[in-house]
Amino acid sequence: MAAAAALIDPSFDVDKLSYEIFSILESKFLFGYDEPKLFSSAAASLPETPTKTPARCAAPAGRVRILSIDGGGRAADGILAAVALSRLEASLRERSGDPGSRIADYFDVAAGSGAGGVLAAMLFARGPDGRSMFSVEEALGFLARNLRRGALSGERRRVLRGIFRRSSPAGMFRRVFGEATLRDTVGPVLIPCYDLATGAPFLFSRADAVEGEGFDFRLREVCAATCAAAGAAVEMRSVDGRARIAAVGAGVAMGNPAAAAITHVLNNKREFPLAAGVENLLVVSLGCGEAMRAQA
């Protein structure tokens, strides 16, 4: 965490991320305890050095846990979300007694747009061992390193767009994801873009990818699509080559993917048969906020 955080520009007001807020998320929303004392009692019973990290941590009372990450229009938005999740992941490891646990172990669905979509893809991509391929710290390091490169050349505002334009088969995202597709994730992932070919939003979904190869896309191209600039559409095809998309960034139609994730879960009875209503959902949504306008 320290190494990755060192690459972040001091102007990013990371200190506003409240430790108390994440304590509430950890104890109540992720583990299902309302009182910290109750959680402490349960955590005390865990072994100090677990022999094996569980692949997934069961949701409290059968609830579906949704992680939603807004994209925002700045590279800094992805950095702030990654810093927030890195702190949360580190605290989860400490409290659970499992140094190998990752954010993907505590959420059932991940949704993200723009830079948030890249984070969602990295955190839920499945590695060779069947676990999440990247920790939040590693994802944060990826964003921070490339942000720093852009800052040094005086192109900070365009750095993420530049990264994603290089997501061709020989580009940066190929080295991150290889040939992995939407099917190669540890849990359901939802990442939006806007399809110029149909003039409508398009939602990349693992559930759809599992149903048919016509909806399965390579993760490197999904990341490029959700971050593409309006004047630089990403031409992409599904794995089977039959579906074609001319994608621009998700901010055109779906900057906040939380509503799409909620709708997806409530209508996906195959994967979430017990999610009858919003009372069965636990949503953690990281947003980039709205700029305050001066009063006349």
UniProtKB/TrEMBL annotation:
<dbReference type="InterPro" id="IPR002641">
    <property type="entry name" value="PNPLA_dom"/>
</dbReference>
<dbReference type="GO" id="GO:0016787">
    <property type="term" value="F:hydrolase activity"/>
</dbReference>
<dbReference type="InterPro" id="IPR016035">
    <property type="entry name" value="Acyl_Trfase/lysoPLipase"/>
</dbReference>
<keyword id="KW-0378">Hydrolase</keyword>
<keyword id="KW-0611">Plant defense</keyword>
<keyword id="KW-0442">Lipid degradation</keyword>
<protein>
    <recommendedName>
        <fullName>Patatin</fullName>
        <ecNumber>3.1.1.-</ecNumber>
    </recommendedName>
</protein>
<dbReference type="Pfam" id="PF01734">
    <property type="entry name" value="Patatin"/>
</dbReference>
<comment type="function">
    <text>Possesses non-specific lipolytic acyl hydrolase (LAH) activity. Hydrolyzes phospholipids as well as galactolipids. May play a role in disease resistance.</text>
</comment>
<comment type="similarity">
    <text>Belongs to the patatin family.</text>
</comment>
<comment type="function">
    <text>Lipolytic acyl hydrolase (LAH).</text>
</comment>
<feature type="domain" description="PNPLA">
    <location>
        <begin position="67"/>
        <end position="262"/>
    </location>
</feature>
<keyword id="KW-0443">Lipid metabolism</keyword>
<dbReference type="GO" id="GO:0006952">
    <property type="term" value="P:defense response"/>
</dbReference>
<dbReference type="GO" id="GO:0016042">
    <property type="term" value="P:lipid catabolic process"/>
</dbReference>
